[in-house]
Write a structure and sequence with these properties.
about 260 residues; Rossmann fold; 2 domains; 11 helices; elongated
């Protein structure tokens, strides 16, 4: 697939959006870097600087849990202070118009919801870091009280409902993917007529298999990312451009 960099490429994307009747927008970390949230895999990214803590380590080791929560709160303000950018706003507009039926995201920052996408239209494959949840009963816990207690005394949180371990509501290495979210993502990918990948490296599985499912089911596959991906060869259109400006321009031009 030849990568397009001209304005004709933007027109092509506008036409694809205007023609879509049941689109899916699939987003990765690249859509949120313009909101000041660092990504994980790029040179200098989080995973290059810090080894991830495996889910089994978190469950079995108080020391690992302490390290996990320390890292969590070191980056807490970057998430809580982040605001949606033009890319998020463009995605929200596609949902508002009814062009996009679902937003499938690998991101954990909640910025699609902040941008105005109703929560029921957002499928979070890797969870959400804006709150915590009990690993036993699933009860939700606000982060501010946990942070206050942890910074004051180093107290590790336990569930107020059942006494189970509490963890940020994100999916860690070694942790099972959310069954219902994956089922919905698969169904939406299979049923869509346009699958728009935005800001994803498309290397994390099983999420990276969703564009393939959509393509095999007859959908048009468009990849918008700053860098090439392993799925560029099967895409109908690839745009290696800045995400916010490109998506905002395409959506504005595809509107009624």
């Amino acid at each position: 697939m030849q990568v397009e960099t001209t304005d004709a490429a933007l027109d092509e994307l506008r036409h694809a959006l205007a023609a879509a009747r049941r689109a899916v927008v699939f987003t990765g970390a690249g859509i949120s870097t313009e909101s000041g949230i660092p990504d994980f895999r790029s040179p200098g990214g989080i995973w290059e600087r810090t080894r991830p803590i495996d889910f089994r380590e978190f469950v079995e080791s108080p020391a690992a849990r302490r390290a996990y929560w320390t890292r969590k709160f070191e980056g807490h303000e970057a998430i809580t202070s982040a605001r949606p950018n033009r890319g998020h706003a463009a995605v929200a507009e596609l949902v508002r118009r009814g062009t996009a039926r679902a937003v499938i995201t690998q991101n954990i920052d909640g910025l699609h919801q902040k941008a105005g996408v109703p929560a029921e239209h957002v499928i979070e494959l890797h969870g959400n870091t804006t709150y915590a949840a009990c690993l036993e009963c699933g009860a939700h816990h606000a982060l501010d009280p946990i942070r206050e207690a942890f910074l004051a005394s180093g107290a590790l949180p336990v569930c107020r409902a059942c006494g189970g371990l509490v963890k940020p509501a994100t999916i860690s290495f070694g942790q099972a993917m959310p069954v219902e979210a994956m089922r919905r993502a698969h169904d939406e990918s299979q049923a869509c007529d346009l699958f728009l990948c935005v800001g994803s490296s498309l290397v994390v599985h099983p999420a990276a298999g969703l564009p393939v499912i959509a393509k095999r089911s007859g959908a048009r596959l468009v990849i918008l990312n700053r860098d090439p991906t392993d799925l560029d060869a099967i895409a109908d259109q690839v745009l290696n451009r800045e995400i916010g400006d490109t998506l905002a321009g395409a959506v504005a031009g595809a509107g009624p």
